[in-house]
Design goal:
Layout: H1 4-12, H2 22-51, H3 55-78, H4 81-103, H5 118-126, H6 129-148, H7 150-156, H8 163-236
Helix pairs in contact: 2-3, 2-8, 3-4, 4-5, 4-6, 4-7, 5-6
């Protein structure tokens, strides 16, 4: 029976191609590490809303969880990283806005739009700096839209949500976002450190090999010089 760590590693490497560089493998594994708990969180959030009678709001994170799991499966089978990357970052950006509106605004939703910050942070890790800036601008726009629609949402969706439930969701949102950001950074930074160590070791091996070859060459040159000097002495005799 395989150990849990081996199963996790197999899952994280399920989207790798034989032609991938170490950095590309790291990005793919990190995105899977982010996507799976995010999908599970969506399912839990959805069931939590269902349990409290908020069926419309519950469908949004629940459907996200299903879509996210399907995209993970698609990526694991077909290895289409660009499609997987875009879907994950786009869904994470957009769905918290819809959820917040459906719950009646910032306060009733416990500021759930905060989850959208994962999108530009993910883009920073999985795209490049320039493209991540675009996703960050999109995040700012999303928060702005949430603010503009706040009064409309409060009038349109008047749910009987207890203050205790709202406060509990505030705690869950803050902890959830913080934990995900930390896990992503911990894994990504840790793996980058490992890659740097591997590169440093390889560079040391190359340097040692070059120095060894240089010493052999110098030894051969010294031997040739010694032989040449002896030949000259013999010729003089």
């Amino acid at each position: 029976m395989k150990k849990p760590a081996a199963l996790v590693q197999k899952f994280l490497s399920s989207g790798h191609l034989v032609t991938d560089s170490d950095n590309e493998k790291l990005k793919k594994s990190t995105l899977l590490l982010m996507a799976f708990p995010f999908a599970v969180a969506g399912l839990i959030w959805g069931m939590l809303y269902f349990f409290n009678g908020l069926y419309l709001s519950g469908y949004i994170p629940f459907c996200y969880g299903i879509l996210s799991l399907l995209s993970i499966l698609h990526f694991s089978v077909f290895k289409k990283f660009k499609v997987f990357r875009f879907l994950q970052i786009f869904l994470i950006l957009l769905l918290p806005l819809f959820l917040q509106i459906s719950l009646g605004g910032f306060i009733p939703s416990s500021g759930v739009v905060l989850w959208s910050i994962i999108s530009p942070l993910g883009a920073l890790a999985f795209y490049d700096v320039r493209q991540s800036l675009r996703w960050f601008v999109a995040y700012i726009l999303i928060v702005g839209v949430a603010f503009l629609l706040n009064d409309y949402a409060a009038e349109k969706f008047k749910w009987d949500i207890s203050e205790k439930f709202i406060n509990a969701l505030f705690m869950m949102n803050i902890i959830g976002v913080s934990v995900l950001i930390y896990i992503i950074q911990y894994y990504f930074v840790g793996k980058q450190f490992e890659l740097k160590q591997i590169i440093a070791e390889k560079n040391k091996e190359i340097t040692d090999s070059l120095n060894y070859a240089k010493r052999i060459q110098q030894s051969q040159m010294a031997s040739e010089k010694y032989i040449e000097e002896n030949l000259k002495r013999l010729q003089k005799k």
